[in-house]
Design a protein that fits this description.
The protein is α+β, with helices and mostly antiparallel strands. It contains 24 helices and 21 strands. It is flat.
Length: 604
């Protein structure tokens, strides 16, 4: 049947032969208004794909979802044997009908196609991530040389000695130099120097021109990476000189190209540790941010990207602390990261959430100097100031341990939304420099204040009601206009925050000190606070929202519209992705009901 659109996910994952097999078995069904197409709890012999009209997914009298042209239903009825809702024609509707045996056969043969039919959100995401890997390799090969992390050019005169060239390499932390010798320019490497001294037994006072090579193999900044690979292979070179406007600007090495494929996770720590000043750290910070996009493009799981990025950011801030903190602060201070950074769930930099606890009093001048230097450097690195001023520059978040414990008590007694949010931010804190003992003592004091206090915990839990998760009925209405407008959902408010804060509240009640939300969920399952199956669903939903948000953040970053960094535009996602989003939002609504009932939030 030629009218069937094979570009519509998940059918775009089929091979040409599989498409022909599917088309040969297609049929068309007509459904009149209000006709029940698939009943809740019943199996279906057909997967339906809407051609014309609309279909309502109903839970009793409540419309959960409105499906339009190119949407398919109900995979659960076909594959798992029981539809999740009633599917009712909202108007005269035509659907392609795909027989169940055909679907099951394609699922068995094609893992990418099968991903659409998984019940587990995380398994769907895993499968789609695998598809991005192939796209990522192709995009790396088509990248420009300027996109790689290449070594900046350093020149030395041809009359300088071999010994001077060696010191120049050491001082600049590089392994190759451009040699300017009159009108000609050559290249000398650390290996060239070693061979000159050890094998040729040249004195250290020998001019470096005697050890360098003047047959320079080079390419332009705007050449493709795949051309660099070909040139390296052809000339048996591990590095190439890079030109810009006929001038040499640096070297591209084979390890730099490898970094484009595998990310710079093994290279960035070395750059951070070797940093000699704020400028060096600023370069490493840019590398970290660039790696997020590279790793996502290559199909890594969102939780792995977040974990790797968090580890690098913590290394960065540890080094920055050592550079900016006076001795008194380094000896007495405990530097904290909080919010999503503390949980290890941030990818694109949003704002600063940091603090410092002091084990003892320090000179006021030292503390003032550190506050300005540390926050100023982070601002330079691209970490925007926190709108709520949760930064070391704020005296509330940079004080003695005893003073901060008194501040925690004051927030607990106040119990208003601002106090609750401050407590929530602190609960996610981790130590990145200094002794962790101060943080442990502060958290234990907080948990002791709230242990057994049902009213206090309920007030804290009610913060999760700040933002409403859109009902699936509203989501359906929005989706019915997909393609006609720019409707969207704020993923942070609708999905991530209710999960993070609900889990955080349960963790406080159980005295769980871990900060990552997924680790907290696992601990809550082990403590009997959550059912194992629901714990897995909740973790899957969290990772789904993180994936959606990262895509939105990268889009906003390129468009320079970071105010929309957490907004998912429903007219820009596929049918499969909308299916994942519906599942994830459904899990959030279930979790919010659990929190409401557990803490009797209806009384607030």
């Amino acid at each position: 049947m030629q009218g069937f659109d094979i570009t519509n996910p998940p059918f775009d994952r089929l091979t040409h032969l599989e498409v022909e097999e599917l088309r040969a078995e297609l049929d068309i069904g007509y459904f009149s208004p209000k006709e029940v197409i698939v009943s809740h709890g019943r199996s279906s012999d057909w997967l339906h794909v809407v051609i014309k009209g609309s279909v309502e997914a109903r839970d009793g009298s409540t419309v959960q979802t409105v499906l339009g042209p190119m949407d398919s239903f109900d995979s659960r009825a076909v594959v798992h044997g029981a539809a999740g809702e009633d599917y009712v024609a909202a108007e005269e509707t035509l659907c392609h009908l795909i027989p169940r045996p055909v679907i099951l056969d394609l699922i068995h043969r094609n893992p990418a196609f099968a991903a659409f039919f998984y019940a587990d959100v995380s398994r769907k995401l895993d499968a789609f991530a695998q598809q991005r890997k192939a796209e990522g390799v192709e995009s790396v090969l088509r990248a420009r040389v300027r996109d790689a992390r290449y070594r900046t050019a350093v020149f030395i005169d041809g009359g300088a000695t071999i010994e001077q060239a060696g010191h120049c390499m050491k001082d600049n932390d590089i392994n190759s130099l451009f040699v300017r010798d009159g009108e000609r320019i050559g290249v000398v490497t650390g290996m060239n120097l070693s061979k000159a001294v050890v094998l040729r037994r040249l004195p250290l006072e020998t001019p470096v021109r005697e050890a360098c090579q003047f047959d320079v193999v080079s390419m332009d900044l705007d050449d493709f990476v795949f051309e660099a690979l070909l040139l390296m292979t052809k000339h048996d070179k591990r590095r190439l000189a890079i030109r810009s406007n006929s001038h040499y600007v640096g070297f591209l090495e084979d390890i730099d190209i490898l970094g484009l494929f595998a990310g710079n996770s093994q290279l960035i720590p070395g750059r951070i540790e070797r940093a000699r000043g704020i400028d060096d750290l600023a370069g490493a910070a840019r590398d970290i941010q660039a790696q997020v996009e590279r790793l996502h493009r290559q199909g890594l799981k969102i939780e792995i990207i977040a974990e790797m990025t968090s580890d690098l950011n913590r290394r960065l801030l540890t080094q920055l602390f050592g550079m900016t903190a006076p001795p008194s602060i380094r000896e007495a201070g405990c530097l904290l990261l909080m919010g999503s950074e503390g949980r290890g769930e941030q990818t694109i930099r949003t704002d600063q959430d940091n603090a410092i606890l002091l084990a003892r009093d320090v000179p006021a001048a030292d503390l003032a100097q550190f506050r300005e230097a540390f926050s100023g450097a982070l601002d330079r690195f691209g970490f925007p100031p926190c709108p709520g001023d949760v930064m070391v520059g704020n005296p509330i978040w940079s004080q003695s341990l005893d003073g901060f414990i008194r501040q925690l008590k004051a927030w607990v007694l106040r119990g208003d939304a601002e106090a609750a949010m401050n407590i929530a931010i602190f609960v996610d804190a981790v130590t990145v420099a200094g002794s962790a003992d101060s943080l442990t003592r502060a958290k234990e004091a907080l948990f002791e204040l709230m242990r057994g206090e049902a009213v206090l915990l309920a007030r804290f839990a009610s913060l999760g009601e700040t933002f409403a998760t859109p009902s699936l009925g509203l989501l359906s209405a929005i989706m019915s206009s997909v393609g006609a407008g720019a409707d969207g959902i704020d993923i942070k408010k609708a999905g991530t925050f209710p999960i993070v804060h609900g889990v955080r509240t349960l963790a406080i009640e159980k005295g769980i000190l871990a900060t990552p939300t997924a680790v907290r969920i696992k601990a809550l399952v082990e403590a009997g606070s959550l059912e194992p199956a629901f714990g897995r669903d909740l973790t899957s939903a969290l990772h789904a929202f993180m994936e959606f948000r990262l895509r939105s953040q990268l889009r906003a970053l390129h468009a320079r519209t970071m105010q929309t960094e957490s907004v998912v535009r429903l007219d820009e996602i596929t049918t499969v992705e909308r299916d994942i989003l519906r599942d994830a939002l459904r899990i959030v609504r279930q979790f919010r009901e659990i929190i409401r009932n557990r803490y009797n939030l209806g009384a607030f």
